[in-house]
Amino acid sequence: MKTQKWNFYSIIMIIAAMSAFSCSDDDNETGSNPDPTATTKYAVGFQTLPVAQAGPVDYMLQLNSLESLTTGELTVEGQGIPQTGWRFFHQAGNTIFTAGYVEDRTCISYQLDENGELKKKTDFVYQTTLNNYLTVDDKTLLAVELAFGVSDPDATSIPDRSFYEINAETGQVDRIISHPVDSSVGDGTAANPPYLPWITGMVVRDGKLFLSYHKYFPDGNGNAIAVDKAYIAVLKYPEFELEKLIEDDRTSSIGTNGPSTGIEQTENGDIYSYSSSSLTSGISGATKPSGVLRIKNGETDFDTTYFFDVENAANGGKIYWMDYIDNGKALARVVLDDTLGQWVAFREQGEQLKLVVLDLINKTVTDVQGIPPHANRYSSPTFVEDGKAYISARTGELLNESSTNTADGETYVYIVDPATATATKGAKINGYALKGIFKVSK
Amino acid sequence: MSVVVLRKKCNVFFLFFAILSCIAQNSIEGVVLDQNSNPISEVSITIIELKNVGVMSDFDGKFEISVPQGSYTLETSFVGFRTKRVLINAKTPEKVFVTITLQENIEELTDVIITGKTQAQNIREKAFEVEVVETKNLKNLSVDINSVLNTIPGVVVRESGGLGSRFNFSLHGFSENQVRFFIDGIPQDNLGTSLTFNNFPATLIERAEVYKGVVPIYLGADALGGAINIVTNQSKKTFLDVSYDSGSFNTHRATLNGNYHNKNGFVARVVSFFNYSDNDYTINQVDPREKGIVIRDENGNRTGEILDSAERFHDAYQSQMVQARIGLVDKTYADELFIGATIASNDNEIQHGILAVNPFGDVRTKENVTLGSLVYKKNRILRMPIKLKIYGELAKIQSKQIDTFSNNYNWSGEVLERNDQTRGELGGAKTLFTFDDQRHIINTSIAYVPNNSNTLHFNYTKNHLKRQGSDPFSIFKSPFEDPHHIDKNILGLSYEVETFKERWETTVFSKLFLTTVKGIIEDEFDSNAATRFTAYKNTSQEWGYGIASSFDINNEIKAKISYEKTFRIPEGTELFGDGLLLSSNPFLEPEQSANVNVGFLWKSKASNLQLDVDMNSFYRGTKNLFFLSPEGVKARYINLAETRNVGFEGEISISHKERFYVIANATYQYITDAVRDIRVPNQPYFFGNFRTGYTFQNLFSFQGKLTISWNSLFTEEFPFQSFNDGNTNDRLRIPQQFSHNLQLGYSLDDRYHISLQVRNLTDASVFDNIAVQKQGRAFFVKLRYFFSQNKSKI
């Protein structure tokens, strides 16, 4: 008798639990919400593995909850909006922008529609690849083109840089401003070579636009000259008038190819930069240590009292990528072996990088526990929620010059707590990487 | 050539002969030709005075008979030709050489033409998996070679526009450098875009041979997935062939093809073409994501205007070629000795990049080719049954990319104000980038044919390319400024044997690929002259091998099986990069593939109806395929991909004498990434075509012929990026393609020809590539005059 009763209750419980479960499932699938104006969705820029000789494909994939990133597997099988060509992913306000690199020079914007579904808003096209991005505020995304070859024999100067001010609400270009940053046609001697600015990071603060850059030799070969100095240009914003050029010889040129985080602003208005000095990260000929410089709030010069020598710090090394999180802490990837050859750190699979927490105030480097040595080619600005950073990392045999494959590699999301320098393994990614993670509302 | 006993009794005959020269004893040697000087194989040659002594002419029409000294009467007979008797005086101890020209027996021919094998049938029945298309019926139409090849099972030619546009030739999933192209056995790689097959009107060629996966050694190249050989008119007689056609989109094409042969054996020949088209056809999609043409402002924003259609406005193409040859034929020291020169050029306006979203209005490419060649052929060397053929060539190819304007265009063809006047339309620096290539080819082929059932064949091809880049517009370094040298040496040896009363034919072969690639990598930041330049040299040696075998199960059915393990050697660009953003990878290994074909041919004849069925199943297993791997701003080729392709193709043909034909074929292939076990996108996997035609003989005039023909091309929809990934609604696809062409032609006296062609009759929107639309309905008229001297030359 007692047993029967127990069974009866348990059946009721199970039915109740099941119906509750299926209800919530339904909610998730339809995405229906009693108040569509309050809809919040997550979205990722998902990069698949290559198929045969075709390169990876990028997808814009919406997620209904953050749990998709913390457990289980994430795939674009049967879902996601395919993109053409290799793409950048950036966000301003509630709009996600995805801009093609060379194959498709179209920038598409995505917003939540009235049903709370991520939908294409509009697009615009450009003739020269937009390479570096800054979310100025919720209304504006700033992008700059970085073509790095100059050939016109009639050119008396290096062409100006074109800045695109993109409206986050309309997804269209408000204006294109061309302005010189720092360039030289040289005088034909090795001591005074020509160069053009290759922008690696942008910050807008108090009506000023700060640009960190490398001086690229303008032959289209992707090599910087005079790398043993850090360079920043300061322009009036939004007037785009050059105010001053500053440099510092304690470390090498700022930033690395791909990310837009060469310089970043903290909560108190200080600007921090990272310099890589790493051949494997693409910087040839640097002799200065890899490290972090600062421009204090209100200043337009490097803080001469501050230099964080990351390369020679305990647990340190040469920085491949850095992104500021909060409370004076940044996440960074450090090159484990700088003798692999130029650009090798960028290979999409391998174990060439380790993840560390940089305490920018106390100048300490702490290895993040719970994440193995890994590879990651490109990332949008790091997604942070509740103080935790969500990053994607791929492990596996380094893609070699011959006879390699991507079958033995694995990609996971890691949820990193910078305060404790620990990471927990989240969802498995059935692809190369998540290029970017975003949260949008309607 | 051994003497075989002929049991066949010969018919009564007619006599005609010619004696060229006498050089050896007790031996009669000769060649049997038709009125057009084409060799006739399998002609029976008997000696009336000597019972049971006779031979068959070989593939080249040659024969040899050993006889005691004396005077003899040779009797030659072949179906469709009048039997002939030739008096031979073999009293002196010297070899007798005869050329026997057979006259067609017109009455007999009309009845038996189908049983007589054409050269195409001969090749098709070889053990190799080969398709042969004879252009005889296509010469009067406005078609180029690519559109002829596009009708072959297993082949898809994916075009990015109209006449002269970029195309991707795909054979069983292999494309680009994985398939090699030849004209008369000479490799065409690195000859540029003015001599690719879309430039050649079908009028200029006799037939196209497509070897699938397994390639005979005489086509000496590192063909990973097969080879295409175009055979031009080899006739030695005097003829003139002139054509002109014109049609939609201001298209004009002309050919001039002629040959002069005098009685001293002097031959002069010219082959030439001219092509021009505005290619200003109407399109209604440029963006993979939406239909219609979005009009944009100077900032790249949408103006709100979306047109239903637009005309391509910067897509004109012009190409021309003249090839001249002079030489001597049928001499004691040479059967053929020719020197030749070719000049060719083109000018190509580029309408857009890989995607059509952003139109261009100024970018163009130009190419120039100059080429000199030497051919030597001798069919008996040192009195042995050894055939020798030597070809040598020097070619200079200059290709130029012209991007010196900063204009920005929209799809209305309007120039938009652009703030940045320092960059070209392609988005980078303005450029006049020029490739200067020099190509040297030596091809030597030796065949030892001791008798009809054994052939030993050796082939050596040297293909040397020197590539150098320059950019007069650049104040800095240009790609390929330091030249690359690619030296490919391909040696092939094959043994062909026929046994079981010629029912079983087998060829075993091996190829040795010896490659040396040399290049210089410059570090422009290194001021030390001694270390600034690093010379790289990469040598590779690969052995390929294969077998092809066929067996006649009965008179009607032939089974075929073939296999080849083959390689594709990396090009200089793939190994050394371009000196700029494409990095070098000296460790790159050759791509390799194991290719298998299993098929059968079935031929059946019922009264005047002929049925031909050709079925083939294939397997391709590749390894070490090159993959362009990005690294920061740069990229390099690495060995990454592995694929499998399993497929099936079949063709059925029904014909009724020369009156009508119906041909249908289909190909299905399943290509997978072998590592990940998922299907490879952006490859047509199910396609086929249908052709039919009817000829009204003796219409309007005794010699008048009216031909009406129809062909349809079908390609099933295939995904651009993935079979499984992405929302079903958002997944990008190349839509199903189904287009029809109608042709009407009238010929008078086999000399005057006129034809009308309607292409894409239903004006369907057709795409080979994502959002790159091809031509809609188009009309063409072609006039052709063909004159041939039928009189015997001897």
Can you tell me about this structure?
The complex is a heterodimer of chains A (442) and B (794). Helices cover 7% and strands 42% of the residues of chain A. Chain A has 442 residues and is mostly beta strands. Chain A is globular, with a radius of gyration of 23 Å. The model of chain A is unreliable at 1-34 (pLDDT under 50). Chain B has a 22-stranded antiparallel β-barrel. In chain B, strands 1-8-7-4-5 form a 5-stranded mixed β-sheet, with no helix packed on it. In chain B, strands 10-15-16-13-14 form a 5-stranded mixed β-sheet. Chain B is mainly beta. At the A-B interface, strand 4, strand 8 and strand 12 of A face strand 38 and strand 39 of B.
Element layout with pairings:
The complex is a heterodimer of chains A (442) and B (794).
Chain A: H1 2-30, E1 40-47, E2 58-63, H2 67-70, E3 73-74, E4 81-82, E5 87-92, E6 95-100, E7 106-112, E8 118-125, E9 130-137, E10 140-145, E11 161-167, E12 173-179, E13 196-205, E14 208-216, E15 224-225, E16 230-236, E17 241-248, E18 263-265, E19 271-275, E20 291-295, E21 318-326, E22 329-335, E23 353-359, E24 364-367, E25 383-385, E26 388-395, E27 410-417, E28 422-429, E29 433-441
Parallel strand pairs in A: 3-28
Antiparallel strand pairs in A: 1-2, 1-29, 2-4, 5-6, 6-7, 7-8, 9-10, 10-11, 11-12, 13-14, 14-15, 14-16, 16-17, 18-19, 19-20, 21-22, 22-23, 23-24, 25-26, 26-27, 27-28
Chain B: E1 14-15, E2 19-22, E3 27-33, E4 44-47, E5 54-56, E6 62-66, E7 70-77, E8 84-90, E9 96-101, H1 106-112, H2 119-124, E10 130-134, H3 145-149, E11 155-159, E12 167-171, E13 180-183, E14 186-187, E15 205-212, E16 226-232, E17 239-247, E18 251-261, E19 266-277, E20 282-283, E21 293-296, E22 302-307, E23 310-311, E24 317-329, E25 336-349, E26 364-378, E27 386-402, E28 408-409, E29 415-416, E30 434-451, E31 454-470, E32 484-499, E33 504-522, H4 529-532, E34 533-552, E35 557-568, H5 572-576, E36 591-606, E37 609-623, E38 625-631, E39 634-641, E40 643-656, E41 660-673, E42 678-679, E43 686-697, E44 704-715, E45 718-719, E46 733-734, E47 737-748, E48 752-759, E49 767-769, E50 772-773, E51 778-788
Parallel strand pairs in B: 1-8, 3-9, 13-16
Antiparallel strand pairs in B: 2-9, 3-6, 4-5, 4-7, 7-8, 10-15, 11-12, 13-14, 15-16, 17-18, 17-51, 18-19, 19-24, 20-23, 21-22, 24-25, 25-26, 26-27, 27-30, 28-29, 30-31, 31-32, 32-33, 33-34, 34-35, 35-36, 36-37, 37-40, 38-39, 40-41, 41-42, 41-43, 43-44, 44-47, 45-46, 47-48, 48-51, 49-50
